[in-house]
Structure formats: structure tokens, C-alpha cells
Design a protein that fits this description.
With about 160 residues, the chain is of the alpha+beta class. The chain has a single domain, classed as 2-Layer Sandwich (Peptide Methionine Sulfoxide Reductase, Chain A), CATH 3.30.1060.10. Helix content is about 30%, strand content about 25%. It is built from five helices and eight strands, in the order E-H-E-H-E-H-E-E-E-H-E-E-H. The chain has helices at about 15-20, 45, 70-75, 105-120, 145-150; strands spanning about 5-10, 25-35, 55-60, 85, 90, 95-100, 130-135, 140. A six-stranded mixed β-sheet has the order 7-6-1-3-2-8, covered by helices on one side. Strands 4-5 form a two-stranded antiparallel sheet. Helix 3 crosses helix 4.
Length: about 160
């Protein structure tokens, strides 16, 4: 098995994690924080909108069963990439649309995917998704991991 890692910010991480967890070829998910300045942030820290961190889902996947491009297709479908610092009822920089790439290939594929989607006209507004190198992944508190599954709330978030 050839494992790889992808990291996406697409609003509240609960529903995004559940979406990726269901995909054949995804071998693991974890929710956490990335892109900010505070080390070891807590959920309460991130919710102050002062840490610079985004809520993210880190996805481990088997490249022989699912491609990074296929993960990107799910990413684009599971949130609105045209709203700045907002997804559904959630507002704040922690809910921004982000792709954190782990390899030069992921960067190339991500930028190409965003450009292709922008040109398609699928969204009436410009895509605001930022694409940046992956930084330190700070795992969120355990109660956030697979939250919807633990609570028996399938598909209850904005997505």
C-alpha cells in the first residue's frame, strides 16, 4: 500500500472529516488546526479568531485506491470555496477554504484543479481558496475526532 497525506480546510471540520472518512481508499482522518502562529492551540484558542489557524482535516489515503485529484474533487464539492472566512452559518478565519499541500506534485495538481474549476464557471463568484505549503498539524482535542460518527449524527453539518 502506498500511503499519502492530504490536508484540507473547508469550514467546520466535523462534517468535512465525515465526508472524507467515507471514501474508499481513505485509510485515516484526523481533525486539527494548521496555518496559524500559536503552538499547541486549543479549540477555544482557535475560536478567538486570533491564532491564524484554520480548522483542517488531515486525510491519509492509499494512492493505489484513490488519487489526490479525486480527493480534491470531493473537497470542492463539500463546501463553498467562494465565501471568505465563512461556511454555512460559521464565520471566522478558522473556517476559511484552504488546501495545504505536502508535495510539489500536490501543489501543481491543486493549482491546476482550482484554475480549471474557476474557468468552468460552476460558481458565480471567484474562488477564494488559498493553496499553501503544509505546516505543523496540531491535532484537535479527542472529542472533536470523528465527532459526528460518535454522536450518531450523519451528515448534519452545513455540507
Amino acid at each position: 500500500m502506498d500511503k499519502s497525506v492530504a490536508t484540507f480546510g473547508a469550514g467546520c471540520f466535523w462534517g468535512v472529516e465525515e465526508t472524507f472518512r467515507q471514501l474508499p481508499g481513505v485509510t485515516g482522518t484526523a481533525v486539527g488546526y494548521m496555518g496559524g502562529t500559536l503552538d499547541n492551540p486549543t479549540y477555544e484558542d482557535v475560536c478567538t479568531d486570533k491564532t491564524g489557524h484554520a480548522e483542517v482535516v488531515q486525510v491519509t489515503f492509499d494512492t493505489e485506491k484513490i488519487t489526490y485529484d479525486e480527493l480534491l474533487n470531493v473537497f470542492w464539492k463539500c463546501h463553498n470555496p467562494t465565501t471568505m472566512n465563512q461556511q454555512g452559518p460559521d464565520h471566522g478565519t478558522q473556517y476559511r477554504s484552504m488546501i495545504f499541500f505536502h508535495t510539489p506534485e500536490q501543489e501543481t495538481v491543486s493549482r491546476s484543479s482550482r484554475e480549471k474549476l474557476e474557468k468552468s464557471g460552476r460558481f458565480g463568484d471567484p474562488i477564494v481558496t488559498k493553496i499553501k505549503p503544509a505546516e505543523t498539524f496540531w491535532r484537535a482535542e479527542e472529542y472533536h475526532q470523528q465527532y459526528l460518527s460518535k454522536k450518531g449524527i450523519a451528515g448534519a453539518c452545513h455540507i
